[in-house]
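Here is one such tokenized protein:
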Amino acid sequence: MDLGFRSTFIRLISYAHAGAKDIETISKHTKRSILDVPNWELVGKLYSNMIYIYRILALIAFIVIGTAGTWAMIKPIFQTDDLLSSWLSWGVVAVASVYKFYGAIYSNYLEGLNKIPLVRRWESLTSIAGSVTSIIALLFTNDLLVLVSTNQFWVIASVARNFYLSRAIEGHQFSKLRITNKFDKEIFNRIWPVAWRSGISGIMSNGLVNITSILYAQIGTSGDVASYLLAVRIITQVKEISMAPFYSKIPLYSKLRIQGEIRELISKAQKGMFLSHLIYILGVIAVGLGSEFVISLLDSNIKFISNDLWILLSIAYFVHRFGAMHMQLYLTTNHVISHIADGVSGIIFVIISFALISTYGLYAIPIGMLAGYLGFYAWYATSASVKSLSINFYNFERKTSMIPLLLFAFYVFIAYII
């Protein structure tokens, strides 16, 4: 929905914080013309444009939610007993959602200054507070409006939290920024070519997920689909947890890139990728070994997918993550190619999956993913990444993916021997 502006602003703010003099210097990836201190003047220009752009995006979001969103809610709301409470609850959700969308300007600012650990700690505290108040509300009432309002209060509070965190960090530089309400066309013209490519990439990635959902409906029995959806949900959680060691450092990688500290960038990126790969592989192995036992304890009718399918799915997600991390590393150059990678790999995925769906059933989906990710996405992203770092593939990967892959290979070997 943000058309790629979020990741673009985070990256550019991190560049300015590293001392970049202007966006032109950033796009050339050179160390010259870099200040020894953060360029708060450029940060202010970027932040001013971010405010202007997000106001427009928030207005668009409000119109979309207010029309299409409300239309989608008509049927479920008219199935409730309390129409007034239901409509008011929807109104609260709609307003809070738009407010949170606009409030991304504060989280973008914080993440651009590499304050991700600080933000995540406060997010955890806010999440705990939200869970506690929701439980308390449930104990005292079953009124939908009260329950929804309690939940959405913390959505609004999270924006206020990020605003005050922005003011508190970096010696209160936030309050000293020269913020104007004027639209800086020159700055926008330099941001837009980068942002729209990132936006297209995001749309293509989400489109791939939607196409996968369509494929689910065409496959086998409801029990098979339920098992597969459970596996996808679990592996998605494993993937998201494993992303933290690498993705939380992306603003730092951008800063090192613009400062020309390539050796340190390589070292930090290798460490982040290694930990991310290791956590993912350990999670996959844990699920593969313990899923049937856990499901048996739950006395559920749903069975977990076969070990063959789980391994194939795990490999497909690993290859995607492998390419995605290299893509993020390359994007620190501010040259966006992810729309090409996502577009081509998505087309390959759709063609292969639909071609094999009638023959291989559920297996066609991870096979299609592997065809798209291994056939184009991963090697395309990795090639661009290592080339930008002036390091060969082996010297980079021997410190990142080699040990996790050997561990996974050992698990597969044991699984089939035993």
